[in-house]
What does this fold into?
Amino acid sequence: MNVEQNAVKTHECAVIGINCLGAEVYEVCLQLPADMKVEYQAGQYLLLAAQTGEFSPYSIASAPAEGDRLRLQILATNAPPMKLLAELQRDKVARVQLPFGDVHADLADARPLLLIAAGTGMSQMHSIIEQARKLGSATPIHLYWGAREVQGFYWLAAWSKWEQMENVYLHKVVSHDDSWEGRSGLLYEAVIKDMPDLAGYRVITSGSPAMVYGTLDALVEHGMQPEQMQADVFSYAPRPAQG
It folds into this structure.
């Protein structure tokens, strides 16, 4: 992902914990410096630096209401993120720039939210739902979380708390696993089956470009207006203009 850094200041944060959540996903907990005053919105992301000086984007999984602590959910299935995690574990310091991203959820808006996440796209949705929980927002939130196999779902401490929220509706969908006894298929198929009319919904989608654009096309065909959907993919991997 190419991101314009625009001379944003780099801050050093203390690494206060790295925990495996399963499915090769690690939660990284950061403590902001006492003199660092940064405001971000639920759904935004930060840039995290490796020792090489290269910055990588990661959605902020914590809620802004959590104050001076940040949480990230990092998938480590190949060398670069594994090396980054090892550096953070060893040095106990993370260099970050934030905030970035136009995608966010206005929880003062009573219109329902439809959150569609594949894999660690959940990180972005985690921030939004946790912010809603901490603020006591009554906005209806429908979450669809997808994985290729059931092992792709990782542990979330907040999940049981979300299950107690009357305005939050949780769905897990698996696309390629015959052992899964829950909902199967593609995420947009589950959404279309559950929601015959998407008018009035605000939709946030997080996943690969192929997943996001496939979901967009399917939901537009189902009657959603394109402008109802937000996704970071639209900024960093825009579709070529139609000639």
In short: Residues 16 and 157 are 17 Å apart (CA to CA). The chain has two domains: 11-100, 113-236.
